[in-house]
Specification:
By secondary structure, this protein is α+β, with helices and mostly antiparallel strands. It contains eight helices and eight strands. Strand 5 and strand 6 form a beta hairpin. The two termini are about 20 Å apart. One of its GO terms (cellular component) is mitochondrion. Keywords: Endonuclease, Hydrolase, Mitochondrion, Nuclease.
């Protein structure tokens, strides 16, 4: 993990590109990027990100990427920067649809779920299902990844948000491979590793011939 601007600058172009794309995805899901008009017709650009105290390491990660800003720790952690020149020039003009940006979206509003349901044909057994759910205010943000990973996007009836759910086994295997290539930076990484281990054990006990580490291609375009 990068913690200083020096580490970012010394990293490879590929690593820096992944870091910026991760940051774009994270900002799209979990931050406030605002423009405020002040006196004398000037504008103030600001970026703020709030996280639970258990996730404050990601705030220092963002500070290291941008090289500016402050982290405050109260009941929650908050990163804040108000630098118009920095915020106008720091991000690439074109957002990528690769796995790094998706990792940022998952770090912001993703949930790895394991569900248990009773099996009416075998009362002593339970059916196990796995899913990844990502929430987003704008459905268009999810569409490039949906086209590559499958699943289903639906609008949440209780709010103006969209939910993308992936639950088919073949799609979930690709998800696991993806996040082993593009790292999660919040505590979601711990959730992912536990979820991944449970998925592997379930596949093994079910006698399935594919797993997150060993398996064939399932035909869809990969990220």
């Amino acid at each position: 993990m990068f913690t200083t601007t020096t580490q970012v600058l010394r990293s490879s172009e590929t690593a820096r590109g992944k870091s910026w794309q991760w940051l774009i995805g994270f900002i799209e899901s979990k931050s406030c990027l605002s423009v405020a008009r002040k006196s004398h017709k000037t504008e103030e650009f600001s970026l703020s990100v709030s996280r639970p105290l258990k996730d404050i390491q990601v705030l220092y990660y963002i500070k290291g990427l941008l090289g500016y800003g402050h982290v405050k720790l109260l009941t929650i952690g908050k990163y804040y920067v108000a630098n118009k020149k920095l915020l106008m020039n720091i991000f690439p003009f074109k957002c990528s649809s690769d796995g790094a940006r998706l990792a940022g979206l998952v770090d912001g509003e993703g949930v790895f779920l394991v569900s248990f349901k009773h099996n009416p044909k075998a009362p002593k057994k339970k059916n196990v299902s796995f899913s990844l759910i990502i929430s987003q205010v704008k459905g268009v943000v999810l569409e490039p990844f949906f086209d590559k990973l499958g699943g289903r996007i639906r609008k949440n009836d209780k709010g103006d948000t969209f939910k993308w759910e992936i639950r088919e086994k073949e799609d979930l295997i690709r998800v696991v491979r993806l996040f082993k290539k593009y790292s999660l930076w919040t505590k979601k990484r711990v959730d992912f590793l536990k979820w991944c281990k449970t998925l592997e054990l379930t596949n093994y006990k079910s006698g399935l011939r594919y797993s997150p580490n060993h398996g064939e291609s399932f035909g869809r375009e990969t990220l």
